[in-house]
Design a protein that fits this description.
Layout (H helix, E strand, L loop, with lengths): L2 H7 L4 E6 L9 H7 L9 E4 L5 E6 L5 E6 L5 H12 L2 E7 L5 H13 L4 E5 L20 H12 L17 E6 L10 H13 L4 E6 L3 H14 L5 E5 L7 H9 L5 H9 L3 H21 L4 E5 L5 H10 L1
Parallel strand pairs: 1-2, 1-10, 2-5, 5-6, 6-7, 7-8, 8-9, 9-10
Antiparallel strand pairs: 3-4
């Protein structure tokens, strides 16, 4: 079933979560170990992220640093298929601009279509860690809106490979990302929401937000989206804090603010176990308020750990 159909048919707020593919060298069991504690809460769908290749510099025998391209978390398409087969739940693999040509994107979408996976989340992808900015692969997309347009074109039977004879239309439900506190690279919130509307106008079916820790940020974001004419469902994304390092990591990496009350509680903690308890309590209150306000779904970012998400879900769903 498509994510948008889950939302339209739901009688109450849905539960969903996002997974990281395991690090190269790990087994698929690491993914199953993350999912198993959350199955009892009947997730409507599960997202699987995609991570583009990275360039790392390794010393050569002469001492010179040699750039080496590697992928730390491969296998999103295969992992998505394995999860859908084992758990009989709808999977939402991420499709990114970074690291793909348009033809490679088309091949990935064809593979997913063959596997019976008809939900995707379209995102641009992270900036290059070396140069500090996003760079598209030659022949690839620079912006997520162009990737949305490619998917919608395939839904209409228009493929990039013009040698195909009467290709069958795909049937993708397309989600896109929204940023309640604006994308780090956007000059301001107004500009950011205009870019978001372009993705919706191009054919996106729903929006899932970046994490936030103050529900006012989400409610204000939704109002701004509605004011500009965005009518698709907007799903809030939550991530419970779990270690003291999040005080600096989350604002820097995800461009989010931590409310002062949350910061005070984290600073009182003597270890990460206590921080994790604070994160669970804070997220429970966030989720309860969001659910009481009738949000379509609450989406959790697991970051590969699910014990804290299970504690939250038990109190909310």
């Amino acid at each position: 079933m498509k994510v948008i159909d889950h939302i339209n048919n739901a009688k109450s707020t849905l539960f969903s979560f996002e997974l990281l593919p395991p690090l190269k060298g790990s087994t698929l069991q690491t993914i199953f170990d993350t999912i198993d504690p959350l199955v009892e809460f009947n997730p409507a769908y599960i997202n699987v992220t995609y991570h583009r290749e990275e360039v790392v510099y390794r010393p050569s025998p002469s001492g010179a640093l040699i750039p080496t391209v590697l992928r730390r978390r491969p296998g999103t398409v295969g992992i998505a298929a394995a999860i859908q087969h084992k758990y009989k739940v709808d999977i939402v693999p991420h499709i990114i601009c970074g690291g793909f040509t348009q033809l490679e994107t088309e091949d990935a979408l064809i593979d997913l279509d063959f596997l019976g996976i008809h939900n995707i989340l379209v995102v641009r992808g992270d900036a290059d860690k070396i140069v500090g900015k996003f760079e598209a692969k030659p022949g690839g997309h620079r912006y997520a809106v162009d990737l949305v347009k490619q998917v919608i074109a395939m839904n209409n039977g228009i493929y990039h490979d013009e040698t195909l004879e009467k290709p069958n239309p795909t049937n993708y439900c397309v989600g896109v990302a929204g940023y309640p506190e604006k994308h780090a690279e956007s000059p301001n919130s107004t500009s950011d929401i205009k870019r978001l509307k372009e993705k919706v106008d191009a054919g996106a079916d729903y929006i899932v937000t970046q994490m936030f820790f103050d529900n006012k940020s989400y409610f204000n974001f939704v109002k701004s989206c509605r004011d500009i004419g965005i009518t698709v469902p907007i799903i809030p994304g939550l991530k419970p804090v779990s270690m003291k390092e999040h005080l600096s990591i989350l604002p820097k990496v995800f461009n989010v603010e931590l409310p002062q009350d949350l910061v005070k509680e984290m600073e009182k903690c003597c270890d990460n176990r206590s921080v994790k308890e604070v994160g669970v309590k804070w997220a429970i209150e966030q989720a309860k308020e969001l659910k009481a306000n009738g949000v379509p779904s609450i989406h959790f970012y697991t970051m590969g750990k699910s014990d804290n998400i299970a504690k939250i879900a038990k109190k909310v769903f």
